[in-house]
């Protein structure tokens, strides 16, 4: 059986992007639909245009590199930004094609989670990072280690999230973050 890999790439049920040095060198139609850009506007552009802020793009790139270097794979759920400025939850998974230079080239998948999880409150970049880690089930200490901040600082961000989401407990906060 002959397999048309280009057709499989184009028709994948998730967004797919091939990258080189954190720039997009190819993408499928699902990425264009999800982010609201034409393919021509995405190609050869930095992934930064898909992030809520340049700071989040830089911080996440620094977090991903050592994990990609060791495992070759990286995956998380995070808030991304559409062309119209709308923020949405997205599950991102990637593979470095060269572990020694993890950002050199890779393949990334993007799954829009907005139908299951809405972005309800106006959050800072760091609050979004803490919220994403809370949804992964990490403790304050684990989040602090992952984000290279103290667990007490994580607790401050968690308290801010609880106020913004009107949550009475950490479990209530997670429930409200998950609620669409």
Highlighted features:
single chain, 180 residues, alpha+beta, Beta-Lactamase, Arc Repressor Mutant, subunit A, 8 helices, globular
**Low-pLDDT sequence parts:** none
User: What is the distance, rounded to the nearest whole angstrom, between the alpha carbons of the first and last residues?
Assistant: 42 Å
**Category from helices, strands and their pairing:** alpha+beta
Overall number of structural domains: 2
Give me the side-by-side strand order of the main sheet: 2-1-5-4-3
Order of helices and strands: HEEHHHEEEHHHH
Q: Can you give the mean pLDDT?
A: 90
The CATH superfamily of the largest domain is known as PAS domain
Number of beta strands: 5
Architecture per CATH nomenclature, i.e. the level-2 architecture of the largest domain: 2-Layer Sandwich
- Helicity range of the residues? 40-55%
The CATH topology annotation of the largest domain reads as Beta-Lactamase
Spatial shape:
globular
């Amino acid at each position: 059986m002959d397999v048309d890999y280009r057709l499989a790439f184009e028709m994948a049920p998730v967004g797919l992007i091939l990258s080189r040095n954190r720039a997009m060198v190819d993408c499928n139609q699902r990425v264009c639909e999800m982010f609201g850009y034409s393919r021509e506007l995405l190609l050869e552009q930095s992934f930064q245009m898909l992030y809520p802020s340049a700071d989040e793009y830089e911080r996440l790139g620094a977090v991903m590199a050592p994990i990609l270097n060791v495992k070759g794979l990286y995956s998380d759920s995070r808030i991304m930004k559409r062309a119209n400025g709308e923020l949405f939850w997205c599950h991102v998974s990637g593979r470095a094609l060269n572990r020694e230079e993890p950002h050199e080239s890779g393949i990334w998948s993007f799954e829009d989670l907005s139908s299951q999880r809405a972005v309800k409150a106006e959050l800072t970049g760091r609050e979004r990072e803490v919220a994403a880690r809370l949804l992964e089930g990490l403790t304050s200490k684990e989040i602090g280690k992952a984000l290279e901040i103290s667990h007490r600082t994580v607790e401050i961000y968690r308290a801010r999230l609880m106020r913004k989401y009107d949550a009475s407990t950490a479990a209530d906060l997670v429930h409200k973050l998950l609620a669409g």
